[in-house]
UniProtKB/TrEMBL annotation:
Keyword Transmembrane: yes
Leader sequence residues: 1-25
Species assigned in the record: Rhodotorula graminis (strain WP1)
PANTHER family listed in its UniProt record: TRANSMEMBRANE PROTEIN DDB_G0269096-RELATED (PTHR33741:SF5)
Membrane-spanning parts: 57-76, 88-108, 133-153
InterPro entries per UniProt: HPP (IPR007065), TM_HPP (IPR058581)
Domain spans labelled HPP transmembrane region: 2-162
Keyword set, alphabetical order: Membrane, Signal, Transmembrane, Transmembrane helix
Source organism superkingdom: Eukaryota
Presence of keyword Ubl conjugation: no
The protein, known as: HPP transmembrane region domain-containing protein
Pfam families reported for this sequence: TM_HPP
Length: 174
């Protein structure tokens, strides 16, 4: 439990500190993207899960951020649509972003539960939606920081992480 606690503390601290960089602070980025709370739980307490392997962390989160931004931008063409509004077609934007994100993650065999939340945040939280395409590098950077810390803390603590690096997929050959 001590190793998990150190992992969570360090991962969240490093990601939160990265939001202070001029690129993100100048765009009013959130201190941390909410889905990284679940990311920390998975990387530091459930590190052997197939859903927490590096390809899922990086590709699942990043693709979900891209798809979430795409859905948000498409729905903004609808007159009266406002991200974060609880009325109107916001239910459809939320449902589309998650369904699309999960479908693509399953197709590419990179399913990562925080990725679903990452896609949802792009269409439901105004502060995140205002980042626009800057949301994607924020999520990618946060994923890389969390992954790097997971590699350090898990392996120094005697845990074997990751259990696999590359795709074992019928769709992607590396």
């Amino acid at each position: 439990m001590l190793l998990t606690m150190l992992g969570c503390f360090g991962g969240i601290a490093f990601v939160s500190l990265s939001s202070r960089s001029p690129a993100f602070a100048g765009r009013n980025a959130p201190l941390i993207v909410g889905s990284f709370g679940a990311e920390a739980v998975l990387l530091y307490a459930a590190h052997t899960s197939p859903l927490t392997q590096p390809r899922c962390v990086i590709a699942g989160n990043t693709i979900s951020a891209i798809l979430g931004v795409c859905v948000a931008k498409l729905f903004l063409y609808k007159p009266g649509f406002t991200v974060g509004d609880i009325f109107g077609v916001n239910w459809a934007a939320a449902a589309c972003s998650l369904a699309l994100s999960l479908s693509v993650m399953q197709l590419l065999e990179i399913t990562h539960p925080p990725g679903g939340a990452t896609a949802l945040l792009a269409v439901t939280i105004p502060q995140v939606a205002k980042l626009g395409w800057w949301y994607v590098p924020l999520v990618l950077l946060s994923s890389l920081i969390m992954l790097a810390w997971a590699l350090v803390i898990n392996n120094l603590g005697g845990r074997r992480y990751p259990t696999e690096w590359f795709w074992k997929s019928r769709w992607i050959v590396l």
